[in-house]
Sequence to fold (748 residues):
Amino acid sequence: MRKIIDINNQWYFRLQYEEGLELVNDLEGFEIVHLPHTNVELPYSYFDEKVYQRVSCYKYPLSIPEQYKGKLLYIHFEGVMTYARVYLNGSFLGEHKGGYTPFDIRIDEEYNWQADNNILTVAADASERSDIPPFGGQIDYLTYGGIYREVSLKVLDSVFIENIKVEADNILGESKDVKLKVYLKNISGEKGNADFSVSINEKGGSEVYKGSFTTNLSKEQESYSFHIKGLKDIKLWDIDSPNLYEVKISLNINTQADEYTETFGFRKAEFTPEGFYLNGRKIKLIGLNRHQSFPYVGYAMPKRVQEKDAEILKKDLHLNIVRTSHYPQSKHFLNKCDELGLLVFEEIPGWQHIGNEDWKQVALENVREMVTRDWNHPSIVIWGVRINESQDDDELYTATNKTAHDLDSTRQTGGVRFITNSNLLEDVYTFNDFIHDGVYQPLRQQQEVTGLEHKVPYIVTEYNGHMYPTKRFDQEERQMEHSLRHLRVQNASHMDDNISGAIGWCAFDYNTHKDFGAGDRICYHGVMDMFRLHKFAAYAYKSQVSPEIEPVLQPVTFWARGERSIGGIIPLVVFTNCDYIEFQYGNKAVKKIYPCKEEYKGIPYPPIIIDYSVIKPEEAGTWGMVWEDVTITGYYKEQPIIEKKLPKDPVPAQLYVEADDTLLQAAQKDATRIVVKLMDQYGNILPFIDEIIKIQVNGPARLQGPKEVVLKGGAIAFWVETIIKAGELDITVKSQSLGEKTVKINVV
Ligand code: GAL
Fold:
């Protein structure tokens, strides 16, 4: 029977690996670290991205219980950036190219049961090796370094289940089927009858199937298929009700046994020339691209923080799709997408550049690793099998496409291009459409892009981004244009039935190479900043949800007389899902104002745009007149449901310090974000206050990043990570103008 043992705590780390270090058993001089780990903690901005591009050394003294003698032992790595060499007691056991996919290294043949400790060594090469995607050219993001995802020890019998593929079938029929493919490894060449017992239950709920199969085992046969038919009362997985099921397979052959559990869902996803259908229902896809990076620690964030990103995208911004640009992302993120009903476009690592034959082999292997790791996620609806924005390479992409289809016939493929008239080898033409420059058309017509005489399944995978980089603390006119560009493209996508949807560039700002970004190593392309704090553009998305789910009302303004050119706040864009708003300026008469349905015919909730036809210059106050408070009230079904007040005379009135979570775990590295805002009398961020903030962490946790920071645009956030100790955490944030505040977190 399998046993999976996490080995994430107490690794021994040295920033620089030197040849021969794998032979060293003395751990003196190594730093103790916990995984996920980044090899170099970086400044927020303006750093030399070469600092982490080196080979680092990780060691782990393995001491495996005697009872596992005779078993197969594998070390399972979820992700090591970018090339890993693995040794046990100085002997080389295996390597892996590519930082975004998992790999297993077998160690039992080298394991010395007499020794107290067997030293596992990982040389983790974070240099941008031109033989591994995405490297070889320039890329617009950083890939960081280290063992940045989890590691475990797998203890297995000599016949074991390597993987399973669960294919829901007859999904829209009254009773549903499941095709199960069990991938076995029969290391010892065991012969005879293998018994498989299979149970399926609703996740956290009751059993819907139980059965068993017996089949003759052979050493050569890699997989065994079982067809389960006629399942009744099955709930579909959908974006609104993401019902999940769990399949459990037990294997018994002679004295060998194994057990494997996997989560899946019943759903039918289809891109057609007329749009995207989920379970037969047409859905306009509205989403953003996500880079998996964070300030200071790069990619090395634990489970909770990965999950939080999915929550932000689905629960806060109300998106229905995310693209994991430009690589397979953390399993925790994907699991959360399954749980929340957030659709996923997942793709292989790469960016514009295609390398030589060896490089292409790694890309092909990346397809295999991505598909076999993730094929049971109901949230994933398409595989991206091209290097993002590369030129056509029919030979390579015929192969990547075939690999994906051979492994998984249930999902369509795409491959993200920025070239028009590219050969469509996949099922869906997936295109980065950067046509919108604020003036001309928001999106191209699909046939203008594909050059084909007929319509094909088509989705826009990027827009905006570098076309209009915008900081959270940029001038409000720029932020207005930034938000409206996002909205105009979404509106155009919603109005074109031949476009399945549009996924904007991008969710969060991200650190990048010197060749991109604003010179400070940041691409300000997000609708949120690196701390996941909203720019106004986030509300263009957030407001596209029924007020029954969440009322939204966000005027795109800092509410000041002189922030904009010439002064005033007109035109004032208000992102809202209310039927109308009431606008009260000072003690002037209340104005009732409706959404711009004429201009925004496509999106579900057009913004309200207040111009001089609604409010006369003398009513809104021109330059030289007295400036007043405003109160905006949103109405739904004739009831006031949300209100926003903006003061004429903002001053620091409230220090907001809040943690995303107040309960963290001690057993493994865990982390949470603490958000700090300086707010005015009505709870709005003071957008230009650049105070120094001092952070103090008392208790069993470590602060990621510096202890002293400056508010950026009136707000900032930071993460604290646990250090494998339980206890109470006091996190004190000291401001200059409003004293200090402490949040308490329990680590158990
Ligand atoms: C695209 C690219 C993205 C990002 C974006 C910026 O060309 O695929 O990774 O660089 O541009 O707008």
About this structure: The first strand starts at residue 3 and ends at 6. The chain has five domains: 3-156, 159-264, 284-542, 553-646, 654-747. The helical segments are 303-316, 331-340, 357-374, 394-407, 446-450, 476-495, 537-542, 617-620.
